[in-house]
Amino acid sequence: MRINFIVAKTKSERDAINLFLTRHNSRGPGSKTGYVAYFAATQDGKMIAAAKFCPLHTPQAARFFAGQDWRNVYTLQRLAARYPPKNLLSKFLSWCLKQMGRDPRVHYIATYADPSTCNSDTGQPHTGAIYRATNAVYCGLTESGRVEGYILNGQRHSMRKGPKTLTMTDIPLSARILRGQVKHRYCWAVGSPLVKRLRLRALRQRMARFSYEPVYQPRLLVKAIKRTLDNLKKAWKYAGKFIPG
Q1: 9, 80, 82, 217: most buried, per Cβ within 10 A?
Q2: Where are the beta strands (DSSP E) in 190-241?
Q3: Terminal Cα-to-Cα distance of the chain (whole angstroms)
Q4: Is the Cβ–Cβ distance between 116 and 128 less than 8 Å?
Q5: Cα(171)–Cα(169) distance, integer angstroms
Q6: C-alpha distances in angstroms, 59 versus 11, 62, 78, 165, 204?
Q7: pLDDT at 99
Q8: If you classify domain 54-144+181-238 with CATH, what class do you get?
Q9: Which residues of the chain have pLDDT under 70?
Q10: pTM (2 decimals)?
């Protein structure tokens, strides 16, 4: 079964990726305007993985990763897969990063892993394992509490409206505020081999103070404990013993 990696160049290809992300990414398809790079992996003509990249959302966030080079920081905005073969996702992501590195505007690619959400296939919290597998530099945890959006009439809205970032005064009083959870930050250096090494060295020096520590939200911790207890009950049952309730 042949697997192909493709760069989406036509509107129909981009629409197909947006539809795939709508179905398989809990945060939806992401940006559809401005500079957005679309990539996909297909197997026997069917899409099994997709990714989107765009400029990082705010100058403040970009400066954290690259300082004065902040205008050249982009982000992995969306990544999703549907029953991919083993190790495919890391290979696909590495290929995407290589393609992005060919663009002279892109020096760094940042991304975030939200441990308050979990993988629908494994039930495990998102901690960024796929990013570490592709040699991303760990950049510490974000601060919680930042307003990321709001819900109005049952529909979620982002704080970004085109080139503008909304303020609290722009949000209707009847809306429900969505505040961000603590997230893991990661970043890749991209470019030609020599330039990439120089950028990577600078990135590692800036992020040397951080070390990865798992962070679990209480809601997911309860789920993990319940899943462990359920597995223990099943094990005892198969052993011919009975555990009440």
Answers
A1: 80
A2: none
A3: 46
A4: no
A5: 6
A6: 29, 5, 20, 11, 20
A7: 97
A8: alpha beta
A9: 1, 118-125, 144-146, 160-164, 180, 215-225, 227, 238-245
A10: 0.76
